[in-house]
Every structure is written in structure tokens, then in C-alpha cells.
């Protein structure tokens, strides 16, 4: 009798699990199905080169977002009535539609856009962008960001740039590309070793260079080309990140690598860690009240957090695994992305700023340099697949992973910018 | 008859041996070809054998820069480390079998012998781990070797250290053998 009761209870338990699995639709579910969007514009009444550029980039952004899937079965110009478009969309079981057209006048291109919510029969975006042929990708990025903003309530991440270093083991240069991996521009060509680029403002990066033999950290305005030597006073200095109006940098002094604050002229203003071991990779909460960093003070590299107001003893955040490194605090200050190495496999992990809810979100080879997008949803990082090195874009909400770029060269650091205008 | 044949053979062999002899003796009282008729005593060799330079000794004053570099590269082979370690310890794994302190002892002896040269120690790591931490780890590896050499009496101002982290792999493969090769200190003479 007991066995029968136990069996019945077990059956009820199983049915409850399957019931909840069927009806619980959350965006954090890895099995989450992408939202179908009617990409029904920019074919009619649109020059072919504009059509090609816009549609290609929108589809690429959809894929990288891990949220949307494009349906291209219909074509509507900007002047098509939205109620008709939405009616067809509902018949096709499509939730949102992007449509419109573009006209050219000399070098100017005017992109007329509508984004509709088919279920609510609403036009949620109705805009005209004035642009040129070089900025069509950027317009496409804006369209996807606006759609993401409407659907999720948080504006999308595509109006940003990734700066990265790439080389062959002897020479490494700094490059910049769009968040989706398009439009790569090489910004150094020094035939030397330049690594670890970091955005420190919307137009300026820092990077570590061996241009003069010894390591030097440079400050470089990517738009004006202004290059300033930021710090060279140590045989080991590691890339500088923004700290209020100054910079935080790890460098070796008296045989110990600690984190210091320096000003734009390279003068040391403050010491943030004071420990005889390795202390590197500072990342700050948005109000600069807390610093997350890596230290091997207890034997192996682990992630610590330090309150910079009280300057109290740093608290260890990671306890799983012998190698946890490369922390990046999200722009909203709530989460930390970091790399964990266990049995030869690397993991991209996420945890709350207090170390709670620690979980692996991605497994891969040689994962490194995680950097958050400005919307605090995506993490860009480098990794390896076989003999190729790649830049991954990871949707931390639903776990979707896509590849923005791949190469046989070696990546030497990566950083995602804030939202660019 | 047999005796006659034996005698002829002995004579022929004797003749051959005499003709093959390379030693020629000049007659001391030979004709003086110089105009000066004053007699000059010839220098007497102190030894009958020719003196060759010792091949195993590096004569500092006679060596060119490239020769010094060549000699240095022979003795200053890379030293290797265990994963995530900067401790100088004997290694016998993944094709690396060495005691790094022996190599460093050789380097220290070389530096003592060539007091005018300076070296750079380049710390490197394998591809595992992160770039920033590996830069610091590479620096610690280079520093460990420098400290050892200083403990052997080498002036610290003669030794520069630099770290390349994991960015300059010697072996680009992705396996334990390649990683073991890449966890290294490399030694270079600074010109």
C-alpha cells in the first residue's frame, strides 16, 4: 500500500513539474523561442544598396540579440496603412513588424521607418532618419535598439563599439568594430605589441603598448587621434580603467602588483590595494563606492570586493574553483561577470555584486576579457573554437550565445563602449 | 731462398718508412742568407708541440658581441614553471625535465665572467587564464629568476624584467605539452 501511495505521489510530483514547464514562459529560460518580427520594409521604393545594407544589419543584430527572428515574407513601403500591416501580421502569427522605405537626395539618404505592435494594433515608432551611405549600419542598429526598447522596456545595446587587440604573437594592434562585429577599423599600425584596450569615455581608450620596449599605457582619442602617454613608470603596468575623473591601474612597485589611482599626467594619487601578492583587474560600481578585483593573496586568483569609502579589508567573493579572474561589474552595478577555470575548461560566470546567485552561463575554451554592454544584458568576450579565435556576444538573460567575429589571430583584450551618439 | 726474400721485404719496408718520415732537420751550421754577417742565435722552442687555444674558455676580451650572444644563448636556455606558479622548482612533466636553478647558476656564472653585459628576463605564461592576471604572473616569474640571480651576487641593475603574459606563445598549440613550453622565462642580452 505504501509503495502504491509513494508511486501516486511521485506521479503527481512529475506531472506538476511538466505542468509548470509548459506554462512558465520566462525570458531566462534557455529554451526560450525567439520573437518573430516581420522585417517587411526597405525593399519597395528603396534603392538597392540601401535595402541591402539595412536588411543585412538588422538581420545580423536580430541573430546576435538572441531575441528576434526575422520574417521576410511581405514587403511594405512606409505609406502602407499600419492597420493592414498589423492585420496580416496577426494572421501570420507575428507580434511586431518593422517596415518602411528610403529615398536618396544627393548624398543624403532619408530612411522612413515604422515599427508596429501587431497584437495591440499600434504604431510604436514612426521616424525618419537623415543619414548617408556610411551610416546605414548605424541606422539599422538604432532600429533594432528601438524595437528591443519597446519589447523589453530596456533600450538595445547595438549603438556601441567594441575595441579589441588582435595579433600573431609578435605584433598586436588595436581595432574597433560595431557591437555586432561589423565595420572593423584598425587604429594602430605600429608593428609592435599593443594589448588590453579599455574604453574610458565615449571617445577615448587606454591600452598597453610595448612600443618602446618597456610597457607604456597610452590614452588615445579614437576620433581625434590624440595620443598621450599615460603611465610608464613601472616594468609592469596593466591597462588603465576609468576611476571617477582619473584612472585606476595595476602596476608593480617594490615587487608587488597593486592597484593605484593616477591622474591624466600619470601621477599617483591614491593606492587602492596594499598587498604583497598580485592585485589586478579593477572594476568599479557606477558610483565608484566599491571595487571588484582579482588577487592571489590566498594562494590562487580569486575575486574580491573592497569598499572604497571605508577602505576596509577586501572581502572574497568566489569560493568555487581554484582560478577565478577577469571580473566586470555591469553598468547598472548589480552583477559581476567573470571567468572561471576548472579542469582545463573556462566558464563565463555571473554573480550578484554581493557574490550571491553564482552561476555559469557559458562554457568554452580560453574565454577571456568579459565586458558588459551598456544595457547590462549582454557580455562580449573572447574565446577559441578549434584553431579559430572568436568574439562572443552572450545574452545573459536567456543564455543565447552568438559569434560576432572570428579569426586565426590571437585576441589580446576587449572592451565594449558606452552608448555612442 | 726464403732468407733472401725476407731480407728484400725488410729492406723495402725500411726504405718506405724512411721516405714517409715528415721530420726534416735543418742543419744548424747552414749558409747565412742575410746581409748581416753577425751571428744571431735562433730562438729555441720551449716545446716541440704547437699550442692551440682552449676551446672551452670564453676569452672576454677577444669575443665579439655576437659571439657573446651566441655563448649566452647556449647556456641561458628558458626555464619553466608549473601552471599558475612562479616558484623555481624542478620540473619533470609534459616533455620538460629541468632544474631551473641549475640553469640560473650557469647564467649567474656567465654574468660574473662578463661583468659588462646586462640581460632582460621575459616572463611568459600559457594560454589558460586571463590576460591581465597572466601579465602579473609573468612578471612574478621574471622577478623570481631575477631575485635568484641577485642572491648569487649579480648586481640587480644589470637585470631588467618584463612580462608578456600569455600573448607571446612559443608553441601555439592547445595542449599540455605546448602549455608547458610556454610557461617560461626567456633570457636576452640587452645590447
Give the key terms.
heterodimer; A: 421 residues; alpha+beta; Rossmann fold; Neuraminidase; 2 domains; seven-stranded antiparallel β-sheet; five-stranded mixed β-sheet; 28 strands; 47% strand; globular; B: 191 residues; 60s Ribosomal Protein L30, Chain: A; four-stranded mixed β-sheet; 5 helices; 6 strands; elongated
Task: Give your account of this protein's structure.
- Chain A has 421 residues and is of the alpha+beta class.
- Chain A folds into 2 domains: 35-152, Rossmann fold; 161-416, TolB, C-terminal domain (Neuraminidase), CATH 2.120.10.
- In chain A, 16% of the residues lie in helices and 47% in strands.
- In chain A, the strands form 6 sheets. Chain A has a 7-stranded antiparallel β-sheet with strand order 21-22-23-24-25-26-27. A 5-stranded mixed β-sheet of chain A has the order 2-1-3-4-5. A 4-stranded antiparallel β-sheet of chain A has the order 8-7-6-28, with no helix packed on it.
- By secondary structure, chain B is α+β, with helices and mostly antiparallel strands.
- Chain B has helices spanning 2-20, 65-75, 100-113, 131-151, 176-182; strands at 79-80, 91-93, 96-98, 118-124, 159-165, 184-190.
- In chain B, the strands form 2 sheets. Chain B has a 4-stranded mixed β-sheet. A two-stranded antiparallel ribbon of chain B has the order 2-3.
- Helix content of chain B is 38%, strand content 15%.
- Chain B has a domain at 64-190: 2-Layer Sandwich (60s Ribosomal Protein L30, Chain: A), CATH 3.30.1330.
- Mean pLDDT of chain B is 79; it is low at 19-40 and 52-60.
- Chains A and B meet through strand 21, strand 24 and strand 28 of A and helix 4 and strand 5 of B.
Amino acid at each position: 500500500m505504501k509503495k502504491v501511495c509513494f508511486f501516486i505521489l511521485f506521479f503527481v510530483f512529475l506531472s506538476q513539474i511538466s505542468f509548470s514547464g509548459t506554462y512558465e514562459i520566462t525570458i531566462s529560460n534557455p529554451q526560450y523561442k525567439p520573437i518573430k518580427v516581420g522585417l517587411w520594409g526597405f525593399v519597395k521604393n528603396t534603392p538597392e544598396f540601401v535595402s541591402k545594407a539595412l536588411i543585412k544589419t538588422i538581420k545580423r543584430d536580430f541573430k546576435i540579440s538572441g531575441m528576434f527572428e526575422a520574417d521576410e515574407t511581405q514587403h511594405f513601403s512606409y505609406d502602407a496603412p499600419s492597420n493592414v500591416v498589423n492585420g496580416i501580421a496577426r494572421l501570420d502569427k507575428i507580434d511586431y513588424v518593422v517596415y518602411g522605405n528610403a529615398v536618396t537626395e544627393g548624398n543624403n539618404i532619408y530612411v522612413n521607418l515604422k515599427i508596429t505592435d501587431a497584437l495591440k494594433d499600434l504604431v510604436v515608432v514612426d521616424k525618419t532618419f537623415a543619414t548617408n551611405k556610411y551610416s546605414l549600419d548605424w541606422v539599422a542598429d538604432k532600429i533594432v535598439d528601438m524595437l528591443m526598447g519597446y519589447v523589453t522596456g530596456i533600450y538595445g545595446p547595438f549603438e556601441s563599439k567594441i575595441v579589441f587587440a588582435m595579433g600573431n604573437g609578435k605584433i598586436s594592434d588595436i581595432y574597433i568594430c560595431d557591437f555586432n562585429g561589423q565595420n572593423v577599423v584598425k587604429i594602430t599600425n605600429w608593428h609592435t605589441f599593443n594589448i588590453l584596450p579599455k574604453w574610458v569615455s565615449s571617445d577615448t581608450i587606454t591600452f598597453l603598448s610595448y612600443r618602446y620596449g618597456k610597457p607604456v599605457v597610452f590614452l588615445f582619442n579614437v576620433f581625434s587621434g590624440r595620443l598621450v602617454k599615460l603611465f610608464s613608470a613601472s616594468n609592469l603596468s596593466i591597462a588603465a580603467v576609468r576611476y571617477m575623473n582619473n584612472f585606476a591601474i595595476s602596476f608593480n612597485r617594490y615587487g608587488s602588483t597593486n592597484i593605484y589611482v593616477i591622474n591624466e599626467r600619470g601621477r599617483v594619487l591614491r593606492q587602492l590595494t596594499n598587498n604583497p601578492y598580485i592585485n589586478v583587474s579593477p572594476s568599479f560600481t557606477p558610483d565608484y563606492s566599491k571595487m571588484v578585483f582579482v588577487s592571489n593573496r590566498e594562494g590562487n586568483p580569486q575575486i574580491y570586493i573592497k569598499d572604497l569609502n571605508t577602505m576596509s579589508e577586501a572581502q572574497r567573493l568566489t569560493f568555487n574553483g581554484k582560478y577565478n579572474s577577469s571580473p566586470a561589474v555591469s553598468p547598472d552595478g548589480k552583477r559581476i561577470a567573470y571567468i572561471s577555470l576548472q579542469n582545463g575548461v573556462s566558464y563565463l560566470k555571473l554573480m550578484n555584486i554581493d557574490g550571491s546567485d553564482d552561476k555559469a552561463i557559458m562554457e568554452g575554451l580560453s574565454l577571456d576579457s568579459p565586458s558588459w554592454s551598456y544595457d547590462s544584458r549582454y557580455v562580449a568576450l573572447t574565446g577559441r573554437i578549434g584553431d579559430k579565435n572568436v568574439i562572443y556576444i552572450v545574452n545573459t538573460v536567456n543564455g543565447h550565445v552568438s559569434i560576432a567575429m572570428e579569426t586565426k589571430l590571437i585576441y589580446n583584450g576587449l572592451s565594449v563602449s558606452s552608448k555612442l551618439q | 731462398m726464403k732468407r733472401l726474400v725476407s731480407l728484400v721485404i725488410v729492406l723495402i719496408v725500411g726504405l718506405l718508412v724512411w721516405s714517409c718520415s715528415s721530420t726534416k732537420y735543418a742543419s744548424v751550421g747552414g749558409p747565412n742568407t742575410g746581409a748581416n754577417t753577425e751571428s744571431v742565435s735562433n730562438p729555441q722552442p720551449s716545446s716541440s708541440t704547437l699550442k692551440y687555444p682552449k676551446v672551452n674558455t670564453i676569452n672576454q676580451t677577444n669575443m665579439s658581441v655576437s659571439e657573446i650572444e651566441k655563448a649566452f644563448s647556449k647556456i641561458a636556455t628558458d626555464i619553466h614553471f608549473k601552471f599558475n606558479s612562479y616558484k623555481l622548482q624542478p620540473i619533470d612533466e609534459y616533455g620538460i625535465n629541468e632544474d631551473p636553478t641549475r640553469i640560473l647558476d650557469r647564467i649567474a656564472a656567465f654574468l660574473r665572467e662578463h661583468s659588462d653585459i646586462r640581460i632582460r628576463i621575459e616572463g611568459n605564461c600559457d594560454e589558460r587564464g586571463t590576460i591581465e592576471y597572466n601579465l602579473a604572473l609573468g612578471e612574478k616569474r621574471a622577478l623570481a629568476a631575477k631575485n635568484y640571480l641577485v642572491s648569487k651576487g649579480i648586481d640587480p641593475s644589470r637585470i631588467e624584467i618584463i612580462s608578456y603574459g600569455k600573448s607571446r606563445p612559443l608553441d601555439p598549440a592547445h595542449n599540455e605539452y605546448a602549455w608547458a613550453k610556454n610557461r617560461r622565462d626567456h633570457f636576452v642580452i640587452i645590447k
